[in-house]
Design brief:
The chain is α/β, with parallel strands linked by helices. It has helices at residues 2-13, 19-30, 35-45, 49-58, 78-82, 85-96, 139-147, 184-189, 194-202, 205-215, 227-236, 261-268, 270-284, 298-313, 344-352, 384-393, and strands at residues 70-75, 102-103, 108-113, 124-127, 130-133, 247-252, 288-293, 329-334, 375-378, 397-398, 404-405.
């Protein structure tokens, strides 16, 4: 079914365009999508109304049928629930005169949301798309007064505390935090994109995969699957249509309460993510990458969009790199409020523009993923080379439990003797 709908979308909307994209643009313009809007969109593009309706109603942020001038989204994730969000929602319903999921007579929409990624600062909310903490004195009262026509609430954007390793201890994930890595100039001053340049100029994509295999890098989303094997699988599989197309897909849609590491990494070090994406694309022969960004992280989305724009302007995205013929396009796809999109195949269906339903495996996404072509689903943000360098400086490749793996003759690491323990949830990263 997905393949047939994709073909229809390509025919009537344009190659690569989707109903999801069209509905997103319409919702961004007017803040809601009525039943008449759905029928009109289907008529304009000769698409089945049932497909347009099913896509619109599947996603929370596209399912709004009532127009609204302002919005209050109260986080109901586990951490915010422990901090009293149920009371916040009840008081908001009383103050605004409407139940959650509806729009009051003044045009204020009240609805639940989870999770906003400020779990230690709750209860939290989104006011007109901007995150606020309601934990401070009078914060809740100020927000409700604002939404009822009073003075602006004046609350600033909440900031999560960061706890770096102790002085003198190695730092990988947070090594660029607080050093100006948010901008391209600042990131390059810290060496970001240096590993990409060295890899492309060396001209051996397979060597990148071999280094990742040797580093024993593993997924930290729960399964702990070896990253190098995933990269190799994508590189070894040709597209069924003979086009040679492959994709990198970045899952930046963590929805479980407390699993907001991706948010902090993107907001504080976005170019390292992009370098990792481009390295993976070069290693596998992918010509395009999609970053599926969580709607509930508006600040991270803004930082990521700016980083992609800077990298594109500098010729790092969508143009031949460092004198080679390798080029990779990167597109940010904004999520529209579907928790299930944290699951890989659901996320792929969303990018394809259809309802984000889980797909049966096999075939596995590395063989037949996005639009039926091989793809690598990325949950990491660290480029391989710094990890391998870090392991070398420590005298050996780091094993899955953080210890050093002994080498036998020839320098190859011995297989680990014990199964790895892995962080559970969407906060996972691919780190040895």
């Amino acid at each position: 079914m997905s393949k047939n709908l994709i073909a229809l979308q390509n025919k009537f909307l344009g190659q690569g365009q989707t109903v999801y994209d069209a509905l997103s643009r319409l919702h961004d313009q007017q803040g809601h999508i009525s039943d008449q809007d759905i029928l009109e969109l289907a008529r304009q593009h000769d698409l089945p109304p049932a497909h347009v309706r099913a896509t619109a109603k599947f996603y929370d942020d596209l399912a709004h049928a009532e127009p609204a001038t302002r919005t209050l989204k109260v986080c109901i994730g586990e951490a915010c629930r422990a901090a009293g969000c149920d009371g916040v929602m009840a008081r908001a319903e009383a103050a605004l005169g409407c139940e959650a999921g509806h729009v009051n007579t003044a045009g204020v929409r009240l609805e639940p949301v989870a999770c906003l990624g400020h779990c230690g600062l709750g209860p939290n909310a989104l006011v007109d798309g901007a995150p606020v903490s309601l934990a401070g004195p009078e914060a809740e009262a100020r927000v409700l007064a604002d939404l009822k026509g009073g003075p602006a609430h004046g609350l600033g954007e909440p900031k999560n505390p960061v706890y770096p390793p102790a002085a003198g201890k190695p730092s990988i994930l947070m090594r660029h935090f607080g050093k100006g890595a948010e901008t391209l100039a600042g990131a390059r001053a810290l060496g970001v994109y240096g590993a990409l340049e060295a890899a492309v100029k060396a001209g051996s994509p397979q060597s990148i995969i071999d280094q990742v295999k040797a580093s024993q890098l593993r997924g930290r989303g729960g399964a702990g699957f070896p990253t190098g094997i995933k990269l190799q699988t994508v590189a070894d599989h040709d597209a069924p249509d003979g086009s040679g197309r492959r994709f990198i897909v970045v899952n930046f849609d963590e929805g479980d309460a407390g699993s907001y590491i991706d948010k902090e990494l993107v907001e504080r070090d976005p170019h390292t993510l992009l370098e990792g994406v481009l390295l993976a694309a070069y290693a596998t022969g992918a010509q395009a990458a999609y970053i599926y960004a969580r709607a509930e992280y508006p600040v991270a989305q803004r930082v990521l969009h700016d980083a992609v724009a800077e990298a594109r302007a500098a010729g790092l995205i969508g143009a031949p790199l460092f004198g080679s013929d390798f080029a990779c396009e990167v597109q940010v796809v904004r999520g529209k409020g579907a928790y299930i999109c944290g699951e890989e195949t659901s996320l792929l269906r969303s990018i394809e523009g259809v309802p984000a339903l889980v797909s049966i495996r096999p075939p596995f996404p590395a063989q037949e993923g996005l639009v039926g072509l091989p793809h690598r689903g990325e949950q990491r943000r660290d480029p391989p080379q710094p990890l391998v360098d870090h392991a070398a400086r420590r005298g050996g490749v780091r094993g899955p439990r953080g210890g050093q793996v002994p080498r036998h003759q020839g320098g190859e690491p011995e297989p680990p003797r014990r199964a790895a323990r892995h962080v559970r949830g969407r906060a996972g990263r691919d780190l040895a």
